[in-house]
Design a protein that fits this description.
By secondary structure, this protein is an alpha/beta fold. It contains five helices and 40 strands. It folds into three domains: 87 residues, MurE/MurF, N-terminal domain (Udp-n-acetylmuramoylalanyl-d-glutamate--2,6- Diaminopimelate Ligase, Chain: A, domain 1, 3-Layer(aba) Sandwich), CATH 3.40.1390; 222 residues, UDP N-Acetylglucosamine Acyltransferase, domain 1; 28 residues, no CATH class. A hairpin with a 4-residue loop joins strand 22 and strand 23. The protein is flat, with a radius of gyration of 27 Å.
Length: 363
């Protein structure tokens, strides 16, 4: 029977010297035997807690914070405050969290008797399957996977080694997950793509015969939906991270290490390159290509293909914004011009009054 591991323990004090060594940080103003056991923001931090500064606009908080130590960028100073200087404080703080915090509780290996596992399904070693979970015929669950209560793995789907399906995560039939994938609660992978043909009087449903493939180390947020392909595959590239409430339509292909914020929608057959970042509530039309290392600012509408780093586009020109989306620099110029319209209108009115004698009548 699957049981949840013991109550989460409190973090043990961790010597700052150990953290500094593992982060490759320069330790400044440290006292002998100094330790931290918790994490906190600069404004809220207390003694015994580690914080960080990545945004220079918050540097003034270094004079008031009570943090035991703060991770900062090279060159940052603070009198009397213990600092760990690193090139990337954001990343270092994340790594420090992994060193300090205990892992979250996870189910222990085993199949809960209230789970339904088809006899033809293949389960690897150290797999846990929670109460009410269903694993259908021909499914393959690799070693060290955790299938939480009420998750569903469809016919002939494959879950790669070390992957996690949280409660009510749903994999339709023939979905393939790579190693170490994380599917959060309520996500649906492999539902039918939105495909219909109009007959003149009604919609005829087009069969969606393809599959969905998630490569290694992909994380899918809660209630995000990824549709199966009409034919072929919908594919999410290695290391990509999708936030909650995202829609990825049929036959979309994402490259490696993409990151999408909540409520992004990508229409069918779009091709998205490697390392693309898309802000929340952005819409991407179908059948276009977005190049590598692009950044699309939130609430934009992408209506055409955009070349990226693969085409030699410099970084400063790879940020797009607006609806329809255009390069950030062009959009900022337009906004600046719009702000000047009121002044221009005033000048035109004054010129019109002079031309029609309005100014002379006042004298």
């Amino acid at each position: 029977m699957t049981t949840v591991s013991a109550k989460r323990r409190e973090p043990a004090p961790t010597p700052l010297e150990d953290i500094s060594r593992q982060l490759g940080a320069e330790l400044v103003n440290a006292r002998p035997g100094q330790t931290v056991s918790r994490l906190a923001g600069l404004a809220e931090a207390e003694p015994g807690e580690l914080s960080f500064l990545s945004n220079p606009s918050y540097q003034h908080l270094l004079t008031t914070t009570k943090a035991e130590a703060v991770i900062v960028a090279p060159g940052v100073n603070a009198t009397g405050l213990t600092l760990l200087r690193v090139e990337n404080p954001d990343l270092a703080f994340a790594k420090a969290a992994a060193l300090i915090l205990p892992p979250p509780p996870h189910p222990l290996p085993g199949i809960d008797p209230r789970a339904v596992v088809d006899p033809s399904a293949r389960l690897g070693q150290d797999v846990s399957v929670g109460a009410g979970a269903v694993i259908e015929a021909g499914a393959v669950i690799a070693d060290h996977c955790r299938i939480y209560p009420q998750a569903y793995v469809g016919v002939e789907s494959e879950v790669g080694e070390g992957s996690v399906l949280y409660p009510r995560a749903t994999l339709y039939h023939q979905v393939k997950l790579g190693k170490r994938c994380i599917i959060h609660a309520g996500a649906v992978i492999g539902a039918d793509g939105f495909g219909y043909a109009w007959t003149g009087s009604e919609y005829f449903k087009i069969p969606q015969a393809g599959v969905v493939v998630l490569e290694d180390d992909v994380e899918i947020g809660a209630n995000t939906c990824i549709d199966r392909a009409r034919f072929g595959e919908t594919r999410i590239g290695r290391g990509s991270k999708l936030d909650n409430l995202i829609q990825i339509a049929h036959n979309v292909r994402l490259g490696a290490f993409c990151a999408f914020a909540a409520q992004v929608g990508v229409a069918g057959s779009a091709r998205i390159g490697n390392g693309v970042q898309i802000g929340g509530q952005t819409a991407v039309v179908g059948h276009i290509t977005l190049g590598d290392r692009l950044t699309i600012v939130g609430q934009s509408g992408v209506t055409k293909s955009i070349p990226g780093a693969e085409a030699g586009v410099p970084e400063k020109d790879r940020v797009w914004i607006g609806t329809p989306a255009q390069p950030m620099r062009e959009q900022l110029k337009e906004w600046q011009n719009l702000k000047g319209l009121a002044r221009l209108r005033k000048k035109v009115r004054e010129m019109a009054e002079r031309l029609t004698g309005g100014e002379g009548n006042q004298t």
